[in-house]
Amino acid sequence: MMIGILIAFLIGLFIGLKGWLKWLKKIKPVLWSTVLLLFFMGYEIGNDESLISQIDEIGLTALYIAVFSIVGSILFTSIYEKFFKKGKSE
Amino acid sequence: MILLLSAVIAGIISGLYFDINIPENLITVLLMFLVFSVGVDIGSEEKILSKLKVNMKNILFQSILTMLGSLIFGAMAIFFTNLNLQESIGASAGFGWYSLSGVMISNLYSPVLGAISFTANVIREVLAIILIPLVAKWSPLGAVSIGGATSMDTMLGVISKNTDKETTLIAFGQGVIVSLSVPLVITLIF
């Protein structure tokens, strides 16, 4: 699947470089495909009975993991951005 | 943002009440279409190839720092939960890729930790929808890092809407590198 996604991106990049499919943006393809993907993600959660039945115990632990890892990622990358990042174009 | 969160909630509710079989291929096709559209978008940017060249180093640092930040800070969950160090770091190592990390950890370690990792990464993605627009105002790369592995697919749209095309390019690169690292890092931890 990874390979498929990479190829799809490269084809899109190529078409964009050629200046084709300029009308595509008008139908907001990025927004609508994201909405559908998130809907299906939600569906998978709601449809997983063993997950839903233990949601209290699992949920709180998971929340700590999620919040801490987000904070760490933001902290490290924003420090890099503010002090070390080069190549900011005009 | 409201639209995206509603999509998640509508999905959960329909999952609770309906039993439909979603073909795996549909999701893959959707993902490919999304990434293709973003590709067209980035490609139509002027002088994009030279920008990619300039940003290779940024993409690499961005990816490594996103992962280190997640793992090191994720480890702090040992102070607030019943998890030990290995479990905390392991559950953080999905970097947002909930389906893969959940399944891998269930198989390699325990189903409960698999479920915790799955949920943690879903929460990461939902929080990303909310936080990316806010964090992007003062640190675009910080915003990109929230998406982790999903910066190349589901969160790419949110990132491209809230930052510039150069940052979106870095986001895609980060998504690729982090996604490739998830199976590797999880295997190393367990």
TrEMBL record, chain B:
GO cellular component term of the entry, any: plasma membrane
Domain of life the protein comes from: Bacteria
Keywords: Membrane, Transmembrane, Transmembrane helix
Gene Ontology MF, one: L-lysine efflux transmembrane transporter activity
TM ranges: 25-43, 64-83, 95-119, 126-149, 169-189
Matches recorded under PANTHER family: LYSINE EXPORTER LYSO
Name of the protein: Lysine exporter LysO family protein
Species this chain originates from: Geotoga petraea
